[in-house]
Amino acid sequence: MTNLGTGNPAIRLENVEKSFGDHVVLQNVSLSVGAGQVFALIGPSGAGKSTLLRCINLLERPTSGSITVDGVTIQTDHTIKPKELAALRSRVGMVFQSFNLFPHMTVLRNIALPQQRVLGRSRADAEDRAHALLGRVGLADKASQYPARCSGGQQQRIAIARALALDPKVMLFDEPTSALDPELGLEVLTVMRELADEGMTMVVVTHEMQFARDVSDHLVVMSDGGILEEGDPHDIFSGPRHARTRQFLRAVV
Ligand code: ADP
Ligand code: MG
User: Fold this and answer.
1) Rg of the chain's alpha carbons, rounded to an integer?
2) In terms of Cα–Cα distance, which of 183, 226, 220 is closest to 202?
3) Residues with pLDDT less than 50, the chain
4) CA 224 to ligand 2 centroid distance, Å
5) Nearest ligand 1 atom, CA 49
6) What predicted TM-score, i.e. pTM, was given to this entire model?
7) CA–CA separation, 4 vs 212, rounded Å?
8) pLDDT digits over 4-39, tens only?
């Protein structure tokens, strides 16, 4: 669902740069994601996709540039106040390739505990919300199960529910299905598609070209730490402007 809205973008990156020592990993990256938009981020391994995603919630601190999420702006070359950092992070949910669930806690507690710790919700409220979200990702019957008893696709859906439980304004996904076989990956992609249809603002790093083409509103192709091209996914798939994009698409489609 495209919902560009008229207000400020949900996510805006301006001239983001990131180096590890002498190694420049992101160079002059600017990006603007409207509320309700779904961006797919593709490109070869090492292009900087994960680093860019991690910069959005400052899991990785950019060397320079500014990051805005839902009205909270951080100038990364200034001192960052803990309150600003917390405000930004509270707006961003993130789902990784590895699900990172707590193995010694039930599925329900995995989703409830962060709400209690981060948002100060009561245990009862947090568990109510966890039950509701488990229903939403199709796992209402798994509440009292332990993660190890769930399939990879189920664990990833639990990880999505856990992120949603903190009421993020935007969701970031870093190759959420690449550790899963295709059938289990599809369960996860279906949940992501529903989330997109409900109007969640999402940035998805993915190798799933079908998802990029059919679900995303906007495609961003990265290579060597920069944005090679961006635009309507169908346009880019049918007529990539850069030879590097063509080469990449030939290899993956
Ligand atoms: P992608 O997700 O597109 O495969 P990454 O963002 O993971 O790319 O990596 C981009 C580049 O940054 C790679 O050359 C990688 O080796 C380097 N890089 C990523 N994280 C670090 C780090 N913590 N320290 C040093 N180099 C890193
Ligand atoms: Mg990556």
Assistant:
1) 18
2) 220
3) 1-5
4) 13
5) 3
6) 0.95
7) 18
8) 445 689 999 999 999 999 999 999 999 999 999 999
